[in-house]
Specification:
It comes from Candidatus Avelusimicrobium gallicola. By secondary structure, the chain is mainly alpha-helical. It contains eight helices and no strands.
Length: 225
Amino acid sequence: MEWSLLFNSFIGMLAILNPIGNVPIFLEHVENEPPNVQRAVAILMALSIFILMAIFFIFGNRILTAFGITIPAFRLAGSIIILIVGLRMLQGKGKFESHGIETAASSSGTFDQARNRLSHILVPVAMPLFIGPGSITTVILYAEKTTSITMGIVMLAMLFLCSVIVGVVLVSSRYIFNKIGTNGTQIVIRFMGMILCAIAMQFMIDGVAQLLPGVLDSSFTHAGH
């Protein structure tokens, strides 16, 4: 079992999902809902995020093959996308601009209200805020490094754990934001941005090493590990 890959994948996915950094945007879209509906929306959002990640993890390589895209080329292109996301986060910016969406009053049950609210905010909150180009790229590149069915199952479990953490953060979003405030959120965003920049550079180095074998010393690369 490649535990270092699993750990790196876990940290990388949490960094690019950036649940704490996305708390203010999530709250903006559910602020007019009662607390029980906010919690239900958070749980449904986390489930949706896992389903989307699992789809790209399982079928991502097939999609690349269908378009005739090689892994090294995708790795290089993906590293640029992740680097851009990381640099934006280092500047204290979100991955995408958010615009408020009016909430329609509803007298239905909690689950029905949550499902209705989710249908309005799945885009742009779940996609592309959580599952955007950077997240999709990261999932596909980590899937490419998975060398066995057992490792694939473990990686899917890791993605599920990431989704659970996102759900816990979103369920607790009001409490978290009240505790750490805007400044604390910005610190978290910048720290995660630095991690993403480092991951992007590693992907870039691995891509160059695969395209131009022998150019880089093996100590710089993870390609083939």
